[in-house]
C-alpha cells in the first residue's frame, strides 16, 4: 500500500496556506503592515476610528435586552438542558457576550460560575482546559481578553471542540479586529461587548452549525466547485485582467454554494483555509449581499488580526449566483472595484463561463457508486499541500440524515490525530459500516465501506479510488495559484 | 431637460428599516426579516422630478454601532442624508439627533436633510409623536416624512422629495453633478464621490464608468 505514489490534487504552489490538521490555531500573522509599507499611499485612519469609539463608550446600552423576549425563559428548562452543544463567550470579568441558546442576561449566574472556575485555576498559575462528566465535555478556551466555553454531548474530541471555540474567537476578531478587542478591554474591563456585536450572534450560530456539519473545518481545507480546468483558468484570467492594475488588491475570491471557484492573490500572500471559512460563513449568513453591491470591512485573523481589509462583495449577476469578493487594504476604492467587477462579469459572460458555473451548480455531482465504487458509501480526500478536499455526494444510507456519517468521520479523524497516540492507518469494522482512515505525508483519506468488506478488498479499492481522483484532479481541484 | 446625479446616504439606528426602505423603492419588494446590512450597500435609481431626471446614488449604511467608524466614508460628499428612525422606538429617534450632530460637525458643503419615520403601519405602537418629530425636523431645517416600507405607504414621496431637494441644491454645492442631457449623465453613473479633481466625462452609451479613482478621504 505504501508503494502508492499517487497524490491527487497536489500542486507545486498553492493559494491557500498548507495546513496540517490541528495545526496551531493560535498563530496569527501580520501581513497588512507589509502591504501598506509597499504602497504607503494609504491613510491610516485607525486613530480616527478609535476616537469615535471612545466617544460613545459611555452611552447606556440600548434597551434591547429588555425587549428581548420575556417568553423564552430558557433558564434550566428541559429543552435548554437537553441541547447537544452549548457554546458560551464571556469577558475575563465574567460579562456575558454570547450564548448559543437562551438569553445571556438570564444566564448571568452561569457565566459567573464559568468565570470563577477560570480565575480559581488561574490563581494557582494554571489554566483550566476541560472537565469531563460522563458523556459531557466542558471545554474551556481562555484567550485574552475572552473566555470561551463549550458544553458538549456530541462525542467530538476535546481538540475538535477547541478548534470550534477558536473559530468562534476568530469570528469575533473578524468583526472587530484583535487590536480593537484588546483596546476595548484595556480601557474598560467590564465593557458589554454585545453592543458592538449585535447581529453577529447570527454569524456565530451559523458558523457553529457549519463547523459541526461540514468536514471542511475538521479537515482545515476547502472544497472546490468542479469545473473544467480551462473554465477555471479563463475565470482566473478574467479576474487578473480586470484587476492587475489596481494596486493594493490582496485577494479576489469567487465562490458559490460553499465551494471555491477561484482564488487570485497578491504575490507572496496566501490565504489560510480558516480565514476562507469565515468568508464562506459571512457570505452564506448574509442574505443582504444578494440585493446589491456591498462594501464591508473584515478582518482575516490568520492573515492579519490587527487590521481590516475592505471587501467589495457582490453576486455575479441575477442569472449566476456566484459571489465575488475583492479584498483590498484601501478603504475608499469601492467604485474602482465596482467597475472591475463589471468588467469581470462581461468577460465571463462572453466566454460562457457563467453558464459553466451554473451548470456545475445545478448538476448534483457524483456519488461514489455512480463513479464505479459500489462498496464505498462515502469518502473524504484531503490534499495537504493545497489544503483542498473532495467528497462525493451523499448516498444511502446517509441521505436521510448526515449525522451518523459526520460522527464516523470525526471519530476516525480523532483516532488519527490523537495527540497521545496518533495513528497513520486505521481500519475498523462495526455492524453498520467499515472505515479506513489513512494519513500520509501528502494526503488524508477517510473511506466508509459496506460493513462486510474484507481488508484486502478495501485496500485494493482505496488504490483504485486514488487513481480515479487523480484522473479527475483537474476538475475537482484548483490546481494553480494565480496572482495579480 | 437636465440630468443631475446626486449622492444620498441613509443613516439611522439598527433595525429601523433603512434597507427595507430602499429595496421597497428600488425593487418594490419587502421581506419581513432582512438580514442586517454588513458594512454598506450601494444602489442607484432614477427619479423624475419637475421635468428633470435625477439619478440617486444611494449608500445604505449598516446601523450597528460597530460600523459607525465607517460612516464618514459615506456621508462625506453626500448631497443628501436620509435620516431614518422607527416610529415605535424612541431610542432610534434619539439616535437621529446624534447623527445630525455628527453631520453638522463634519460636513461643510450644503446637504439636504430628510428625516423619515418608518413603520407607520404600526401606528398603535407609536412612541414618537408626529409633533415631536416635526418640531425637531424644523429645528434642524430638515424635511420630515412618515412612511411604511412594509405597506409601501409614502415611500415614493420620500424619493420624490429627495429628487426635488437635490434639484434645489444645484449651484450651491460643487459635489452635485449636473448634465444637460442623459448620455453624459449615464456615462458617469458609477463614478465616485468626485469633488475637487477635474473630471473627464467619457461619452459612451454603455453605462460603464470610466476609471478615475477618487478618494473619499481626501476631500472636504
TrEMBL record, chain A:
The protein, known as: Vacuolar fusion protein MON1 homolog
Function comment: Plays an important role in membrane trafficking through the secretory apparatus.
UniProt-listed GO biological process terms: endosome to lysosome transport via multivesicular body sorting pathway; protein targeting to vacuole
Gene Ontology cellular component list: Mon1-Ccz1 complex
Protein family per UniProt: Belongs to the MON1/SAND family.
FUZ/MON1/HPS1 third Longin domain location: 375-473
Domain FUZ/MON1/HPS1 second Longin: 247-346
InterPro entries, A to Z: FUZ/MON1/HPS1_longin_1, FUZ/MON1/HPS1_longin_2, FUZ/MON1/HPS1_longin_3, Mon1
Domain FUZ/MON1/HPS1 first Longin per the UniProt entry, residue ranges: 85-207
Superkingdom of origin: Eukaryota
TrEMBL record, chain B:
Pfam families linked to this entry: Ras (PF00071)
Database matches in InterPro entries: P-loop_NTPase, Small_GTP-bd, Small_GTPase
Top-rank taxon, per record: Eukaryota
Record keywords, A-Z: Nucleotide-binding
SMART domains: RAB, RAN, RAS, RHO
Gene Ontology molecular function terms on file: GTP binding; GTPase activity
Protein family according to the UniProt entry: Belongs to the small GTPase superfamily. Rab family.
Protein name: Uncharacterized protein
